[in-house]
Design goal:
This protein is mostly helical and about 250 residues long. The protein has 8 helices and 2 strands, in the order H-H-H-E-E-H-H-H-H-H. Helix content is about 70%, strand content about 0%.
């Protein structure tokens, strides 16, 4: 879970760099796949090798060939997740920065760790005297600071949700989607794209609150498309957890 400081200081260009490396890997798998198909798999298809041994070899060679194809597809899918994550994470980080800047304009001081307090140093001497002797002024200042602090917390949480969404998306594309393909936990030959409207929604979907009283509010915060996907995939579990509670 990234902190406020990490959100503002992490170099997101690493995502596109990593995506490029995975795309290079996919290209190399493609070359290996073509070489294997020509020099190894093709042997069992020629006229010089026939009968049972040739068919048995062909079956095994085909599995290996499909694994190489799966490796290429999986590498491209990982690259896609990483590349697609750059823009939304950048936008969410910019939102955190904008809220921080607005808080400062509104008279707050924001620490490097995201703590928000009313900036009395910016008051005139007369205002500081009034502040020191007016409990209502102090309470209003604390209320404003708390409001800005909550806005920052929610903005950082959106980044956290998107970060979790990346993890969920990566887990999905590297999971062997066909247990009957002749391999055990092999490469994913059919990686699917993230079905959720955004990485943030994907992360929120994966983080259902453990406390039942918090479940309805979490459920209402989800996009309708996200709710539909979750109901289809694990409706009974969600209803038992309390998504229909008032």
């Amino acid at each position: 879970m990234p902190t406020y400081h990490e959100v503002l200081t992490t170099d997101l260009s690493g995502l596109t760099t990593a995506a490029g490396r995975w795309e290079e890997m996919a290209t190399r798998f493609k070359a290996l796949e073509e070489r294997y198909e020509r020099d190894v798999h093709g042997i069992s298809l020629g006229e010089s090798w026939i009968d049972l041994s040739a068919r048995a070899a062909n079956d095994r060679f085909t599995i290996t060939l499909k694994e190489l194809q799966g490796a290429r597809k999986e590498a491209k899918a990982v690259a896609g997740v990483l590349r697609d994550a750059h823009t939304p994470l950048t936008d969410l980080r910019n939102r955190v920065k904008a809220i921080r800047d607005d808080a400062v304009k509104a008279g707050m001081r924001v620490s490097g760790q995201g703590a928000v307090v009313f900036d009395t140093a910016r008051l005139t001497q007369a205002e500081q005297t009034a502040y020191a002797h007016d409990p209502d002024f102090q309470q209003a200042a604390r209320t404003q600071a708390n409001t800005w602090a909550e806005k920052l917390v929610q903005a950082v949480k959106a980044v956290t949700d998107a970060d979790d969404g990346i993890r969920v998306a990566l887990d999905a594309v590297v999971l062997d989607s066909d247990p009957m393909d002749g391999t055990f936990n092999g490469f994913n030959r059919n990686p699917r794209t993230n079905p959720y409207p955004s990485l943030e929604e994907s992360g929120k979907a994966a983080n259902m609150p453990k406390d039942r009283k918090d479940v309805p509010a979490w459920w209402q915060s989800l996009d309708p498309v996200t709710r539909g996907i979750l109901l289809e995939e694990k409706g009974d579990e969600l209803r038992a957890a309390g998504v229909m509670d008032p």
